[in-house]
Design a protein that fits this description.
The chain is of the alpha+beta class. The chain contains 18 helices and 13 strands. It folds into 3 domains: about 180 residues, Formiminotransferase, N-terminal subdomain (Formiminotransferase-cyclodeaminase, Chain B, domain 1), CATH 3.30.990; about 170 residues, Alpha-Beta Plaits (2-Layer Sandwich); about 200 residues, Up-down Bundle (Four Helix Bundle (Hemerythrin (Met), subunit A)). The strands form 3 sheets. Strands 1, 2, 3, 4, 5, 6 and 7 form a 7-stranded mixed sheet that branches. Helix 1 runs antiparallel to helix 2. The chain is flat, with a radius of gyration of 29 Å.
Length: about 575
């Protein structure tokens, strides 16, 4: 299961006093499970932008602690700076990175805003996806009038904060108000052009950016900008929603670029922006030669891009994650100006190397895994090996699907087999996780056994911990059985419909899947025997026995198909 990761980018109204800034970031870093990625103070703005990431509970706690420390150290009655601001913690967005939706982040933001108001007595507004009203989606609306307008906004219907509204007092005077929200990840990207002309790069930028360009009299480039009845410039919108862009020339590279901020990658994904800039450039006789990502990028942006370009080539998308990302890199020329290293640019890989799917065991080579299994340690044991046999079963079925998608003469069926391969890759990931999870289950039992048992209370706590750990150790191999059983549908389809030259691989996959199921069943049974809750034990073993019987039948069915095809 993909780990939930969110990013938080609070802006604090202090950019000059390094001791204050460090005290705030220390409070953030003190929360376990949070990784501080960047601290960017501004002298003129008197503002510091902090970026940190982690799982939702850790990030929201760290955000709260940062807001609390800022309120203690920053006095808004003395604050001056070039940037609009409303509070000691001025704005605090939560951003989905992986395993979590924008809507879920919005709910977290609202809860955080309420907690800040309730516990710290800091008024909070909710903006962007967390807004309670459409107009407050716009940060500028929430912050209208800035800090100086708070006396008139507090305790006034329609103007006051969403949480912590009350008459203006000394506490509000010191802390100001905070705006908490949820927004999508912003990607800063530059598209490289085979021209040195800033003017032409700007023209392309105006073609595509959401704001577009001014409508001019007579439709002439040098005509006067046209105005509406209110005296506002009439704009011709560009083709890409949720984007801002300009053209510029980069001395370092000797080329012009279209520099773009994609503010909502759900509305305009990276690959859509690339294709549209490429189209707009070609219409002006210019070619996009590559792409430069500034800062970090969420993994999903590259996965979506890689899958998009594979689809355009009518190639299977059911390949390894690393290969999909490699397709994205090559298709958009992310490595044109300098090497693009996913482990340094993809935010999930940077903060959690295991997000690549490599756990303690699954990150080992085949040789090291075998050596570790053959050592004196009882883990990894049969449960992890069963899960890995399931991985190999799913991998074989996926391989046959990919080979079938690329088989000469079967071009019209590429998407059919690609879909099967996608499902196979999902199974591989599920089972890879269970390889390490089985060892984790063993470790939980050992941890429970190590608990003290001197007093009656300690004995009871130890017994409860052992029961919970044993139940978990029974459930994990049952999950392995279920996941490995799901491989039979893929393997049977590949035996029937897949590339005939690979039918034996589908057969080997069926043998591996059955072994995975029956091996995991042994672990279910031996662990269930240690459960005090006999009813739960009987239910788990009965479910396991049913899955094992179905696996026996599925293996025989697939092997019959395989043998008939081989014997033809």
């Amino acid at each position: 299961m993909e780990k939930q990761i969110i990013e938080c980018v609070p802006n604090f109204s202090e950019g000059r006093d390094k001791a204050v800034i460090k005290a705030i970031t220390d409070a953030i870093e003190a929360v376990e499970g949070v990784k501080l990625l960047d601290v960017d103070p501004g002298e003129a703005t008197n503002r510091t932008v902090v970026t940190f990431v982690g799982e939702p509970a850790a990030v929201t706690e760290a955000a709260f602690q940062g807001v609390k420390r800022a309120a203690e150290l920053i006095d808004m009655t003395k604050h001056h700076g070039a940037h609009p601001r409303m509070g000691a913690t001025d704005v605090l967005p939560l951003i989905p990175i992986s395993g979590i939706t924008l809507e879920e982040c919005a709910a977290l933001a609202r809860d955080l805003a309420k907690r800040i108001a309730d516990e710290l007595e800091i008024p909070t507004y909710c903006y962007e996806a967390a807004a309670f009203t459409p107009e407050r989606k716009n940060l500028a609306v929430c912050r209208k009038g800035e800090y100086e307008a708070l006396p008139e906004k507090m305790n006034h219907e329609g103007l006051g904060p969403d949480f912590g509204d009350r008459p203006y007092d000394e506490k509000v005077a010191r802390t100001g108000a905070t705006t908490v929200g949820a927004r999508d990840f912003l990607i800063a990207v530059n598209f490289n052009l085979n021209t040195t002309s800033t003017r032409r790069a700007n023209a392309i930028a105006f073609d595509v950016r959401e704001k577009g360009r001014p409508q001019r009299e007579g439709g002439k480039p040098n005509g006067k900008p046209m105005k509406d009845a209110g005296g506002n410039t009439i704009m011709i919108p560009g083709t890409l929603k949720a984007t801002k862009a300009i053209g510029w020339y980069i001395d370092e590279y000797g080329i012009a670029q279209v520099s773009m901020n994609i503010t909502d990658i759900g509305t305009t994904p990276l690959h859509v922006a690339f294709d549209e800039v490429t189209r707009a450039a070609a219409a002006r006789g210019i070619r996009v030669t590559g792409t430069e990502i500034v800062g970090l990028v969420p993994k999903r942006a590259l996965i979506e891009a890689g899958r998009y370009f594979l689809h355009k080539q009518q190639r299977s998308t059911g390949i390894a994650e690393s290969e999909i990302i490699r397709m994205a890199i090559k298709s958009m020329g992310l490595d044109e100006l300098s090497e693009f290293r996913p482990e340094e640019k993809v935010i999930e890989y940077l903060i959690d190397p295991e997000s690549k799917g490599a756990g303690r065991l699954t990150g080992m080579s085949c040789f090291d895994f075998a050596a570790e299994t053959a050592s004196e340690s009882p883990a990894p044991g049969g449960g992890s090996i069963s899960a890995y046999m399931g991985v190999l079963a799913a991998a074989l079925g996926t391989m046959v699907a990919n080979l079938s998608a690329h088989k000469a003469g079967w071009d019209e069926r590429w998407e059919e087999f690609s879909n099967w391969a996608d499902g196979g890759q999902d199974l591989v990931k599920r089972l890879m996780h269970l390889v390490d999870e089985d060892t984790e289950a063993f470790n939980r039992i050992m941890a429970a056994l190590s608990l003290p048992k001197s007093t009656p209370e300690e004995k009871e706590a130890r017994a409860q911990a052992m029961e919970a750990a044993t139940l978990y150790a029974t459930q994990v191999p049952l999950q392995t059985m279920e996941a490995a059983s799901d491989a039979f549908e893929l393997l049977e389809a590949m035996a029937k419909e897949g590339n005939p030259a690979s039918v034996s691989d589908a057969g080997v996959g069926a043998l591996a899947a059955r072994s995975a199921v029956l091996g995991a069943e042994l672990n279910v049974r031996i662990n269930a025997a240690g459960l005090k809750d006999r009813k739960a034990a009987e239910e788990l073993t009965a479910k396991a026995a049913k899955i094992a019987a179905e696996a026996d039948a599925a293996e025989r069915r697939i092997l019959l198909i395989v043998k008939e095809k081989i014997d033809k």
